[in-house]
Amino acid sequence: MKWAIVLCAMVALSECIIQVPLIKGKSARESLEEQGLWEEFKLKYPFNPIKFQDPRLYVAGEQMTNDADLAYFGVISIGTPPQSFTVIFDTGSSNLWVPSVYCNSAACENHRRFSPGHSSTFRNAGRSLSIQYGTGSMTGFMGYDTVGVGGISVQNQMFGLSQTEAPFMAHMKADGILGLAYPRLAASQATPVFDNMMNQHLVDQDIFSVYLSKNSAAGSVVTFGGIDPNHYQGSIAWIPLSSELYWQITVDSVTVNGQIVACSGGCQAIVDTGTSNIVGPQGDIDRIAGAVGSYSANGDNVVNCNSVNSMPSIVFNINGQAFTLSGSTYVRQSPYYGCRTGLQRSNSNLWILGDVFIRQYYSIFNRAQNMVGLALAR
Predict the structure, then answer these.
(1) 330 Cβ partners below 8 Å, 6+ apart?
(2) What domains does the chain contain, in order, with CATH numbers?
(3) The pTM is what?
(4) Catalytic residue among 69, 90, 286, 355
């Protein structure tokens, strides 16, 4: 695949790592803003991080969000000969799914669709799949095929083929999603892609890591099988998981100007590449927003663009260490809507440390020791 990179570093174990470059394109929100359709869209399809509210919901189907701000996509292939798809590499879910030729929803018409009849290695798994979003759902069925990720071939990978998709998914830039969370989160008893990589001995270490570029359209990458020292500086802080469903950790507190403004007494957080912002309980987010000088307008936390460089830092205190986000890190500027923070309210007590956080901290996901590693990104 043209997007695949395999790097062999001259280190003690001659470790080979597999890298998939991520494309940083326009998010659905940016495209809708350009067309003047954003206000209408967000009223129809409000962001709702339902997937994190109650693990019991995963018995019948997978729960997902509808996040219009996601902008990072990678290319994989499915089938023999390979059919290419762009996917979100999502540490907040566990299934792989793409649109299929059997899907007649409007959302499938502007995306690549997998054709089982054009793959000599496809097998029908005889199972249905339902992914519930905050608004609407995707339904389909499960199949097995060869999946190409970063130049390696994962054999007999179970994946979903959509037959119906909710209308808002027409605005998604990626064709589908590749989940990287734990197996017990997966719908239809599918083994996640990274688990099959480990089981089939396709990676040297049971680790993958994510680097998201801050400004450039190029440079972002998912690394399978190891850690790339070119993408971080200083030491790695290793944080044990508090739950092995998502990549869930304990945050001790959130401070601004040395004062605790949120998460007093500790709270639970997901390190999630499949969410663009930092999401938290409404009261906590409102207190952080007030402490940094933002105000609410049309559902966003808005700031004066001239004040960004003088805004106070938000500090997440995790496992005895401080992870600092400066104003220029947590504020984004839109040519249509000015400057807004990457802080988002939810009705859940579970926090989500999304791409706003991951752009600042190179994130390492260690399945061997069930830990998350965080290091200052270069």
Answers:
(1) 278, 292, 314, 341, 342, 343, 356
(2) 5-210 (2.40.70.10), 230-377 (2.40.70.10)
(3) 0.89
(4) 90
